[in-house]
Amino acid sequence: MSEQRKAWTTYIVLRLLFFAVPFAALYALGLALGFTMMVSGIVAAVLAALIGVSLSILLLSKPREEASESIYAWRNRDRTADDVAEDAAIDGEVDAK
Predict the structure, then answer these.
(1) How far is CA 89 from CA 66, 75, 78, 82, 92, in A?
(2) Residue 35, SS3?
(3) Which terminus of the chain, N or C, has fewer Cβ atoms within 10 Å?
(4) Where are the membrane-spanning stretches (predicted)?
């Protein structure tokens, strides 16, 4: 597996786990406390999203950086020197206005 694909796979799987595990635990806890399925699901989804985002920010900086570098490399894979010069000229015209 290529390094780019490995970085993306790692990042996506960990993000899904950071949401799914807290969601399942909070949903089961809500049901055990006697909440309805709807209320338990909504509360579990909101709290699991907050937990997932927090864990991602704290623990996934390296996989996120590798994934963003792979996007940059993919986006610029077919660029020639003329493309770079043209983009610089266009950026210069936009900045001058």
Answers:
(1) 29, 19, 19, 10, 5
(2) coil
(3) C
(4) 12-33, 39-60
Q: pTM (2 decimals)?
A: 0.69
Q: In total, how many domains does the chain have?
A: 1
In the chain the beta strands, taken as DSSP E runs, fall at none
Distance CA 2, CA 70 (A): 11
The residue count of the chain comes to: 97
Which among 48, 17, 16 is positioned nearest to 30, based on CA atoms? 48
Structural domain containing residue 28:
3-96
Cβ atoms of 26 and 44 within 8 Å: the answer is yes
